[in-house]
Amino acid sequence: MSSFGNVLDVTKPDFDVDAYVVKLLREKSLDGLVKEEEEMVSAVRRLDSDVHQIVYENYNKFLTATNTVRKIQDEFTQLDSEMKSLSQSMSSISSLIGSLDGVLGEKRDDILQLGSSYKVVNSLKHIFDLPHVLQSEFDDRNYGEVLRMFKLAEESLDQYKDVPTVQSVLQKSKKIYDMTENQLMDQLRNPASGAELVSEAVDLLLTIGRDEDEVQKVLLKCSEQSLREDLKELSTNHSDVLDLVDKASESFIPNLTLIATTHDRLFEEKRAELLTVLRTEMNSLHALVSKVFLSSSDAKDCSIVVRALDRYFRKISTCRHVIPGFDFLPLTIELINAVSKHEIDLSLTRIKEELRNALNEVRKSLINEEKDLSALANKIEQVFVHQVKTALANLLLFTASDVTFANLPPDEFRQSFALNAHERLLVQAFHKFAELGDEYEAGAGEIRFIDPRVLLVFAVALQHLSNKSAVYLLNLCREQFSLSPEEGLTDIAVVTSEVKTRAQKLVRCYAEKTGLSMGETLIKGCTMLVQPSATPSSVRASVRRLGEDMAACDSELASLLGGDTKPKDTRVNRRPITTALDAARDSLWCERIDFHLQIHFNRASIITAVVKVVLKIFIESIRLQTYSKFGVEQVQVDCYYLQRCLAALVSDEVVVNSMVDQALSSALKRCQDPVLVHPSRLAQLCEQPPANRPSSQASSLGY
Question: What's the pTM?
Answer without folding.
Answer: 0.68
